[in-house]
Amino acid sequence: MLSRGLRVEGAVEFTTEAAGDRRGLTVSTYREDVFTAAVGHPLFPVAQAATTRSRKGVVRGIHYQAPTAKYVYCVRGKSLDIVVDTRVGSPTFGRWDSVMLDDRHFRALYVPAGAGHLSIALAGETTLTQLTSTPYDDDTAAALSPLDAGLDLPIPRGLTLVLTERDQTAPTLAQALAAGALPDYANCRSDDLTSS
């Protein structure tokens, strides 16, 4: 398993190789030694595991929940996943990076606590598994507009997007910042370290 630091502070892409033979394949979607070397601490104690199955064009995000960190990988299909630095005070605040998650390369994405996460299904029946450091909480979960022109995310042209009403009406990053609705970087970093 290999790791690559992303343009968002603390976010990391992991790539592994599948071992295949006439029976099928085996793939390791997580290795603690590689994760710890890349991130600086072990993976958080998993508080929730969730699986999403999406048809082509489904957009989920930009979602964030302080103090939640995520580890995401694709078990079927293909998804463009984007991490957005929503943490006020972060050295990379407002920056984003993307990773292609699919069932061919089996990459995984670590989203540090408080950062935003967006997935766009590029194939039918795209299935993602997401491990989180805290359970989902409707009271603290928040969203930003995936169509925020100020972020200029690499949403594929020509793709018919399917968004929930929540994501369609979510504020831009600038609007959420002005409203004081974004997580604090120092608090998120503290949560990242204490949850591991």
What does this structure look like?
The chain has 196 residues and is α+β, with helices and mostly antiparallel strands. Helices cover 14% and strands 34% of the residues. It contains four helices and 13 strands. The strands form three sheets. A six-stranded antiparallel β-sheet has the order 1-2-10-7-12-5, with helices on one face. A five-stranded antiparallel β-sheet has the order 9-8-11-6-13, with no helix packed on it. The chain has a two-stranded antiparallel sheet with strand order 3-4. The chain is globular and about 55 Å long. The chain starts with a strand and ends with a helix. The relative contact order is 0.24.
Keywords:
196 residues; alpha+beta; six-stranded antiparallel sheet; five-stranded antiparallel sheet; 4 helices; 13 strands; 14% helix
Secondary structure elements and their pairing?
Elements: E1 2-5, E2 12-15, E3 19-21, E4 24-26, H1 32-39, E5 48-54, E6 59-64, E7 70-76, E8 78-84, E9 96-102, E10 108-111, E11 116-121, E12 126-132, E13 142-143, H2 165-168, H3 173-178, H4 185-194
Antiparallel strand pairs: 1-2, 2-10, 3-4, 5-12, 6-11, 6-13, 7-10, 7-12, 8-9, 8-11
> Percent range for helical residues?
10-25%
Terminal Cα span:
20 Å
Spatial arrangement of strands, main beta sheet: 1-2-10-7-12-5
Mean pLDDT: 95
Largest sheet: number of strands, sense, barrel closure: 6 strands, antiparallel
Rg over CA atoms, rounded to whole Å, is: 16 Å
User: Which consecutive residue ranges, at least 5 long each, have pLDDT under 50?
Assistant: none
Any idea what the shape is?
A: globular
Strands, count:
13
Structure class: alpha+beta
Order of helices and strands: EEEEHEEEEEEEEEHHH
* Tally of contiguous helical segments: 4
- What fraction of residues sit in β-strands? 25-35%
